[in-house]
Amino acid sequence: MNWQIHLPALLIAVPLLGAFAAPAFANRRLRDVWFTVMIAATTVIAFLLWRRVGAEGIVVYVMGGENWHLTLPSGMRLPIRIIMEVDAFSAFMALSGSIVSFAGAIFSLRFLDRTTGGEKFVALYFLLTAGMLGMETTGDLFNFFVFLEIASVASYGLIAFWRNTPEAIEASFKYMLLSTIAALMVLIGVGILYGRYGALNMAAIAKSMQLGLPEKVALALFVAALAMKCGAVPLHMWVPDAYSQAPAGISCFLVSVSQASLYGLFRISFSVYGRALDTPAVAWIIIVFGILSMFIAVVMAVIQKEVKRLMAYHAVSQTGYMLLGVGVGLLALAHPQAMSEYGFTAMQGGIFHIINHAMYKGLLFLTAGSIFYASGTLDLNRLGGLARNMPYTTVMFVVSAAAIAGLPPVNGFVSKLLVYESSFAVHPILTVMALVTSILTLASFVKVFQSAFLGPARARFSEVREVPRSMLVGMTVLLVAILWLSFMPTWSLSRLVGPAAQALVDQAGYIEAVMGSGL
Amino acid sequence: MNPLSLIVRTVCNVFAWFMVIFGAYIIVHGHLSPGGGFQGGAVVATFIAFLLVAHGGKRLLGWVKEGLFSAVESTGLLIFLGAGLFGISTTFFYNFLAKKGGLFGSVVPLGSNTGVLNSSGTIALMNLAVGLEVVAGLSLIIVYMFKGIRLELDREEESHDR
After folding, report:
1. Among A391, A437, B60, B90, which is least packed by CB within 10 angstroms?
2. Are the beta carbons of A68 and B91 separated by less than 8 Å?
């Protein structure tokens, strides 16, 4: 039998194997090999899964069943086992996340040489990967909660990896507190839905969904908790601390992990609730979250003096574009005409922005890590003239800064343009806010570029050299991805983003893949 | 932490073992009764907490080998994942041991009964694996927390009872 049917299970099993065996590798060289091989294997599996979903449509996998596609055992009206359900949107998120995970891992190899505890870092990194991929591929609400917790617990440890700095401990503790609250809210929401429908499978719940008060309460809990986890304003206070205190490879990867929560938010509001939502309230809440995130976070970013903290605020701000785009799509979901006129474009923009943001924000965090590795500081008032000594890092920074600011022809421009032209149909003020945010983003990155890389050579940085080759390789992975997305926008939209947006809209298809067309 | 009095230490020496037995009971009966690998493992790990409270941190650190605990933890997790991967010729986590006879594969008779200990296939095996993992993991957590406190206080321990 074709081994590719097991891809959804392998996507979780391979990083878990990497995590569990990591403590055995005390030898640094062996550990590096293990880290690289297993994370590369995960990325390959994610790619194969994405290709298979593109060819065959939604892929299901029944954990521990007599047969991998036996979602409804004979005589059962509800699925009883844990089912992985991978549609084009899941596969898209898993592909994007695993590429960033690969780049962050390669970057971290040499970055960790100066510290001890490398085997714990590797184990937690794999756990974080497994948690993120699990959240993105599971079709089961409780399973989603479990993977959410796995990812959260792994990130507490990784954010506080430099535990000799009190700031890192504080950031980790703050994140732990907020994540625990968010996770419990998700758990209560899952409990409410389980009490109402006796099922945990998303498709099974979606099939019998009748919007009443308990369902509304559950939805409110999900939206609040997952918005907190993906770092939308006003629940963003953990983001700047966590992203700026974690090691650079982790900051880069945490962006993708937060996007897994964003995935959960979209999956629940589109696939579980979807057409049962008869009010536009949820869509407007998501849009308002988006607008607030975009604008408030970018205003906070402009005044920052520390490079990684500035980038962390931009991570919040860019999440706003995704919320805005997909929120506009949710608003148009009930009206087929609005959907074809602007809703689908908005969703394409929002979803395209997810992968774009994962790539360029990841690269920006890695360049910040390189600056720190080479010069020992991230303070913009002390940095200067680094372009002389670090030409490759400078090029990477310029490309990714152009991408985040939405300068044509780089990839951020394409997705932002899609969001602008579609949100205009809902209300012009949305577009105006998005444009102003984009301009302020450009302004703050011009500031970083000017003060860190340009200017006269500083005497205290005369010894600074370009970072080791493996760190450059890690950055190059993301650079290639950015350039690919930039110069193949038509391919990206038709093969990568279009199917993902279509899968998110197609609630009936999501239900049918598990529940069959009968009943 | 300072060692407690001779009475406490003697009581601990006797009764700590009963916690281990009870925890082991919960682990191996995980598929029949409430509890399982995690809960039983947590009970067994109180052994280390008992030793820490009664005998004091200095002696405990002399007894505990962190590398060994770490190895046991990884072994438990790998057995768990291995039990899942062995079933992959059917599906991941397929219960390939159930109803096959042998240590884990007894067939449970129909109708009400008191439960058959060596039924349930990989579930019992996974309970054992999780039990190993939790025992080692929670013991290490206790040891690390104690070390953290000692770093924080940054002073030598002194006994009050000898």
Report:
1. A391
2. yes
What is the full DSSP assignment across A42-60?
Answer: HHHHHHHHHHHHHHHS-EE
Give the distance from residue A507's alpha carbon to the nearest chain B alpha carbon, in angstroms: 27
| Min Cα separation A39/chain B (Å) | 17
**Burial tier of A232 (Cβ tally within 10 Å: 0-12, 13-18, 19+):** buried
Q: How far is B93 from chain A (nearest CA, A)?
A: 4
Tell me whether residues A23 and B87 touch, CB distance under 8 A. no
Per-residue pLDDT of A448-487, as tens digits, reads 999 888 888 888 888 888 888 899 999 999 999 999 999 9
Tokens of B140: 């290490």
pLDDT in tens, A291-303: 999 999 999 999 9
Helix, strand or coil, per DSSP, at residue A156: helix
Low-confidence ranges of chain B (pLDDT < 50): 157-162
ipTM of the complex: 0.86
Nearest CB among A16, A20, A65 relative to B91 is that of A65
Q: What are phi and psi of A395, to 5 degrees?
A: -60, -45
Q: Distance between CA atoms of A310 and A306, rounded to whole angstroms?
A: 6
Chain B, nearest residue to A123 by Cα: B74
User: Which tens digit of pLDDT belongs to each residue from A367-396?
Assistant: 999 999 888 888 888 888 888 889 999 999
- How far is the C-alpha of A423 from the C-alpha of A287, rounded, in Å? 10
B residues 88-117 closer than 8 Å to A (CB):
88, 90-95
Q: Cα–Cα distances in Å, from A190 out to A145, A276, A350, A512? A: 8, 17, 26, 21
Q: Name the 3-class secondary structure at A85.
A: strand
